[in-house]
Amino acid sequence: MKRKHHNERKRLIIMPLKVAFLQLASCWGCHQSLVDMHEKLLDVIPHLEVVHWAAVVDYKYKDLEAIPDGEIDIGFVEGCSRTEEDVHHLKVLRKKSKALVSFGTCSTFGGVYGMANSYDIEECKKRKFLTADSIVEGTIPTNDVPDFEPFVVPNPEIVPMDLRIPGCPPETDVILKVVGGVLEHGLDTVVSILQDKGELYLWTEVLGFPHKTQCDECEREREEKQLTEIKRDYVGITDPKKCLLEQGYICMGPATLAGCGVQCPNAGVPCTGCWGPAPNVRDQGSKMMSALASISKDIEPEAFRKMVPDTVGTFYKFFLAKSLLPRRVKEESMEG
Amino acid sequence: MPTIKIEPVTRLEGHLNVTIELTDDGKVKDAMARVTLTRFFEKFLEGRLMEHAPRIVPRICGICPEAHHLASIKAVEDAWDITPPTPAHKLRELLLQAKMISSHIIHFYALAAPDFVFGPFADPAVRNLIGIVQHLPNEAKATIAAMRFGQDLCATIGGRAVHPVTSLPGGQSKALSEEERDEYLKRVDEVIDFANFSLGLGKKVTNDYIDVALKVGILPTYYVGMANNGVHTYFDGTVRVMDPEGKIVADFEPRDYRDYMGEYITDHSYTSHVFYKPAGYPKGIWRANTLARINVVDKMETPLAQQELEAFRELLGRPCHATFAYHWARLIELLESAEKTKILLEDPDIVSTDVKLADIEPKEGEGVGIVEAPRGTLTHNYWSNPDGVITKANLIVATNHNLGAIEVGLKQMAVNVFEKGIVSELKLPEPMVKT
Fold first, then answer.
1. Which fold has domain B41-425?
2. ipTM of the shown complex
3. CB contact under 8 A, A139 and B63
4. pTM to 2 decimals?
């Protein structure tokens, strides 16, 4: 009863958007980025009625389950589905929400946690609960804890998503543009435009984002130079003005969607691809490898492997679960 | 058999459920804190390049990614036997102080304060950060400005506000410019003022709730935290252990951590309980985080924070076992971080461009990096092969130190509530804001 009174009081002033923020397997970085809108929180908060946000508001899962289907205006999903419980909560929020937003790279592509897909889940459990070096007494927990999913599968392959915001985390300005866009144009308009066009990243155009690669936004100078060697990130001192890739560092810019403001190259380190694939790129890692091959000169495959001793972590840090080869394939299943 | 479930425990980051089992005659049979998630960093770091670890592990925690970035780079440099230039070392410490400012503020004001402002029994619809923003807009503005200082400084030094990128083996990829330094120097005094204001509020809250502080959550445990020759530090030093009587029983180098830190895996939680290994489990259950650090150190590093530590000890003693005192301890640390940030910004080294060594070679070996994260001692341990590829990784993150004690505290609280009915007898103040 109390809650109803509260809602009525707020609704006299303004009709707020009903929103829910769900945390699956994640780090809360997307939410930190949301909180980082700082002073603008004071402008945005009055427009929102938060019906679920475990880290901020004291509503429980049973409160979420009790909300009628379709009553939440926007549900935001942070993190990937690592356990059966994650999958369940994802499906619940889908049912309750008019629009479901895949909030950040983990939800959209699996993120760094997707790199666990290169190992069997039993090996992961064994390392974590039995053999880690400081364990004195180990056991694999089974008492009323949710089972792990065998592999990380990106959330949009589990339930339909209306909006996908990439980024690890999505930058605060990006979140503001999405929320601002919905508040300005109305949720129905934004969602219907997106659904009509149906393209993965079309929201970037709708909400005024560039539809480009990181390189398109990067101000470092390019000379169309050919590479004769690949450098590890710690080698030497980088030239602050020149393209990192042309200096020999593996910068994921050519394969990665723009939108973050090219922050990593601007801070003197290569892009690692946390925004996911550039427009019209199906597989971020193979796109990057082919970009490298096209500018390399006289680097034999054997020498390349020596210069880059980790393919997964170098080219698929955030994207393995969404890649063309998204998981470890057992020998026996290949035979089968 | 009646069972009470809290799913999830709210106003914390992560996945914690609580189950309390009662017997038919209302006695507490068991109480369990279940973390229902893990992401397997210890496994998928295997095969990664050592220099990529500091760019991957921030995703362990988006509220304290700087601590993970820095523990990680320390582990890499320890394994490869690298000492970065002094200005790079100071920039890293400044990055961690900046994070402490924003994290301590968000912890106190967004996670804890709603209970004091609206009272612990207020409507959940109001008893939260959003309620504070709506009911106390001026206080919220000052809080946001101070938090912003920390997050902005994280972005300037770390390259991004969340998930920093600038620490490489051998130093930092980016120096701090004089213009940037001057900008933060202009703002830092306001943050020191805000920390002082917060301490006043923290002391008032402790006094208002003194009945709660002294009767509920008194948990004599071991404590773990870093110290530099006995002085409070987040970044450089040894790891100290205090026993429940207040005696320092260990003061060890990071590389020796496996002699002192043990992990116990329960059957009901995906997060281990870390404990003081020489004492065994459960006797060696310890706590980390603000109160633990305040307990293990002899003194604070900066003058105003030292005065506040003395006031704290005068009222609550050393060691202090009152869980409620974590808040006050957090605000003493906030003040120290604000003061230390100013000291570092005034250090001429902080704008030096000598921040990165050019010649770095991977080598085979093991490295350990320990820093204090906002919520406790954080350990990263990697094994490198001669090509600089990680062959094995072991991580002990801050929250795991506390989970054993959280469960003990939960059982104690359950007995207080269901058997002794102590909660209804507690003297509680009027809420600051009535709803």
1. Cytochrome-c3 Hydrogenase; chain B (1.10.645)
2. 0.96
3. no
4. 0.95
